[in-house]
Amino acid sequence: SPERAAPERAPRIYTRTGDSGFSSTFTGERRPKGDRIFEALGATDELSSAIGLAGEFSSEKGHTFVDQLHKVQCMLQDVGSNLATPLSSAREAHRKRTSFSERPVLELEQWIDSYSEQLPPLRAFILPSGGRSSAALHFSRAVCRRAERCVVPLVQAGEADPNVAKYLNRLSDYLFVLARYAAMKEGKEEKIYIKPEP
User: Is the domain covering 31-121+129-186 a CATH 2.60.120.480 domain?
Assistant: First the structure.
């Protein structure tokens, strides 16, 4: 009877399937954890975490772009799905489910143009600075560049969609522009590179 039904158990977080140093792609293929697919997935996960931190700092300052950062984090989940589906072992059903279109790339370009129009001209090399929101966005940009470096070899090998690499490339530009915008809106000074005296 329902009264005597055993309570549902929450699924375990650990599976032990990776204890031998291997992990599974979405296609079910087992690869070493040091495989470049998992390197790219890890870098993308770290990027989403960095953006999450930047979003929290930005939310505290009432920035209206926080919703965009949340959307980016959702897109990074889709990036991860594409990366976890190596085209060399993917069936057509896998490819359809994890395809990555150019639409998000174009959306980032629109956002970049919108913020760039509001910023003062760039006349010096800017150091990561400009308050917590800005600095965290600069940090996210640096992590994004690393994720892109991990993804490009997969695209070149035909294992991932080229739009994934394009997205990460535009995303780093977006994060740079957004960092400058956050500093401007908060009235924080951006530190610039000054060449040391010889």
Answer: no
